[in-house]
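Please fill in the sequence for the structure shown.

STRUCTURE ENCODING:
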């Protein structure tokens, strides 16, 4: 990594944010939106607003992390209860699921921005996101949501590096997409399924598994563990407690994906958007 070039990208980001005058950031509490929010707050101060959607598709721990981050840095923060589960097109869980969710979200964000007299709405997409299937990008484009990190040509590794330089606690935080992404396309999204996923992933995290995923295939849970954790899952004592906890959550069978966790795996076969 050319650290000097990366720092120059941050300066470019700062210039872009300064020109905006005011900014509402769609804030999930993850690495990217936290970095964007922190830089925006440094540049625009009180003209920065973070907005977080809370619903059953977002792990409770992520909402808490977002609130803690905004509070730590004195950033104005709005959390609203999203009714995304009322959207039939979202619940149907087709390949365009994220489009319907993001369109619904961005409509609410612009409403809040108008109320606060904020000129622009941004999301924390980075350069690497362009390599994956992202229907939500189309919703952002249609709504007029900007992506300053992409405009500044920043990728995930660079954002983590700059976050660490700034002393942000999120610099090494694992990615955490919404819980709906654990349910295979065209399988109905329900509150019960989301709860089963949230509970079991939280359990794995408590055992020390990093970046693990639980895919919900009806009565079968498929665990995707990080490469360094694959062997740990198969140890007798660990295997037994995992199986017991997953059955308690409602699964009849527990399986292990031998490939391990790979970001974007559920999107294989789809073109990038």
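FILLED IN BY: designer on duty
SEQUENCE:
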């Amino acid at each position: 990594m050319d650290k000097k070039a990366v720092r120059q990208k941050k300066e470019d980001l700062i210039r872009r944010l300064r020109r905006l005058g005011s900014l509402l950031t769609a804030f999930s509490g993850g690495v990217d939106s936290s970095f964007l929010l922190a830089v925006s707050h440094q540049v625009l101060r009180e003209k920065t607003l973070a907005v977080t959607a809370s619903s059953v598709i977002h792990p409770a721990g992520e909402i808490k992390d977002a609130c803690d981050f905004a509070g730590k840095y004195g950033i104005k923060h709005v959390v609203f209860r999203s009714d995304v589960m009322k959207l039939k097109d979202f619940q149907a869980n087709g390949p365009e699921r994220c489009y319907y969710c993001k369109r619904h979200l961005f409509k609410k964000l612009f409403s809040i921005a108008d109320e606060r007299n904020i000129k622009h709405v941004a999301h924390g997409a980075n350069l690497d996101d362009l390599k994956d299937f992202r229907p939500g990008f189309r919703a952002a484009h249609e709504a007029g949501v900007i992506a300053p990190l992409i405009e500044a040509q920043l990728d995930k590794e660079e954002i983590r590096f700059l976050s660490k330089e700034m002393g942000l606690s999120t610099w090494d935080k694992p990615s955490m997409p919404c819980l709906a992404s654990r349910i295979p396309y065209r399988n109905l999204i329900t509150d019960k399924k989301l709860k089963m996923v949230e509970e079991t992933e939280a359990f794995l995290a408590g055992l020390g598994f990093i970046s693990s995923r639980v895919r919900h295939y009806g009565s079968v849970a498929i665990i995707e563990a990080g490469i360094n954790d694959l062997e740990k899952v198969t140890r007798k004592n660990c295997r037994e407690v995992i199986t017991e906890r997953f059955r308690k959550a409602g699964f009849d069978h527990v399986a292990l994906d031998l490939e391990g966790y790979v970001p974007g795996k559920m999107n294989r076969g789809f073109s990038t958007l």
